[in-house]
């Protein structure tokens, strides 16, 4: 269990969120992960037209990026979702719930956009994480 992050699901005077924390903070080494899309290691789209398959690939790409920094999903304090249709959010959340601790979810924002950088992409997600001070894991 990650203990270097503090989650506040609902600060006083703020309505409780469904599936995310309103506030998360930590101390340590800050990590920013660029927006990841459903591209495989060859730059090919995974799951064309299938938001659930694309979301799974996006979270796999995020996992790989976090691992490159010595981090994991337990170190993530913020996720930002960019979707071409807000109706895609349940599938994205389902993929997210496979990799995060749903009892201590990160802060998050979701934005519907008119398009991503390629027309066959449906979702892009960026992440911020914090590792505790000390040697890399």
The residue-averaged pLDDT reads 94
Tell me the total number of β-strands: 6
The helix content is 10-25%
Order of helices and strands: EEEHEHEE
Our Rg estimate from Cα atoms comes to 15 Å
Count up the helices: 2
| Structural class designation | alpha+beta
Strand order of the largest sheet: 3-6-4-5
Describe the biggest sheet? 4 strands, mixed
Overall, the morphology is globular
**Fraction of residues in β-strands:** 25-35%
For the termini, the CA-CA separation is 14 Å
Low-confidence stretches: none
Task: Describe the protein's architecture and organization.
The chain is of the alpha+beta class and 137 residues long. It is built from two helices and six strands; from the N terminus they run βββαβαββ. The chain has helices spanning 51-68, 89-97; strands at 5-8, 23-26, 29-36, 76-83, 107-112, 123-131. A four-stranded mixed β-sheet has the order 3-6-4-5. The chain has a two-stranded antiparallel sheet with strand order 1-2.
Give a nutshell description of this structure.
The chain has helices at 51-68, 89-97; strands at 5-8, 23-26, 29-36, 76-83, 107-112, 123-131. By secondary structure, it is an alpha+beta fold. Strands 3-6-4-5 form a four-stranded mixed beta sheet.
Please give the structural blueprint.
Elements: E1 5-8, E2 23-26, E3 29-36, H1 51-68, E4 76-83, H2 89-97, E5 107-112, E6 123-131
Parallel strand pairs: 4-5
Antiparallel strand pairs: 1-2, 3-6, 4-6
Helix pairs in contact: 1-2
């Amino acid at each position: 269990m990650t203990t270097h992050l503090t989650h506040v699901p609902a600060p006083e005077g703020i309505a409780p969120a469904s599936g995310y924390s309103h506030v998360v903070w930590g101390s340590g080494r800050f990590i920013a992960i660029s927006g990841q899309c459903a591209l495989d290691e060859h730059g090919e789209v995974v799951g064309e037209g299938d938001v659930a398959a694309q979301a799974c690939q996006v979270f796999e790409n995020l996992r790989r990026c976090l691992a490159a920094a010595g981090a994991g999903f337990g170190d993530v304090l913020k996720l930002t979702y960019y979707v071409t249709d807000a109706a895609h959010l349940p599938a994205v959340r389902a993929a997210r719930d496979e990799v995060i601790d749903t009892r201590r979810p990160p802060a998050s924002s979701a934005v519907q956009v008119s398009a991503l950088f390629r027309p066959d992409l449906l979702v892009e997600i960026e992440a911020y994480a914090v590792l505790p001070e000390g040697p890399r894991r």
